[in-house]
Amino acid sequence: MIGNRAAQILADHFGNIDALMAADITELSDIPEIGEKMTQSLVEYFAQEKSLDIINRLKAANVRLDYEA
């Protein structure tokens, strides 16, 4: 559900993966252009153990997961 435009909006808003992961459904819903389906998709994605494992492996490999405009 998250395309390039939505990813850019989220990166601009949160700045890093940890802040995005910590966002609740209300905070996500308040972001312009991020709709209900995208919000639900994000919440479901970050609730999955497999997703968290992938993110943790990326962090361990020193992959940059923050964004600077």
Strand tally, please? 0
Q: Which spans of ≥5 residues are poorly predicted at pLDDT below 50?
A: none
Could you give a short account of the major beta sheet? none
Structural class: mainly alpha
Helicity range of the residues?
55-70%
Characterize the overall form. globular
Task: Write a structural description.
It is a single chain. The protein is mainly α. The protein is 67% helix and 0% strand. The protein has five helices and no strands. The longest helix has 12 residues. The protein is globular, with a radius of gyration of 12 Å.
Briefly, what is this?
The chain is mostly helical.
Descriptive tags:
69 residues; mainly alpha
Write the layout of secondary structure elements.
Elements: H1 4-14, H2 17-22, H3 25-29, H4 36-47, H5 49-60
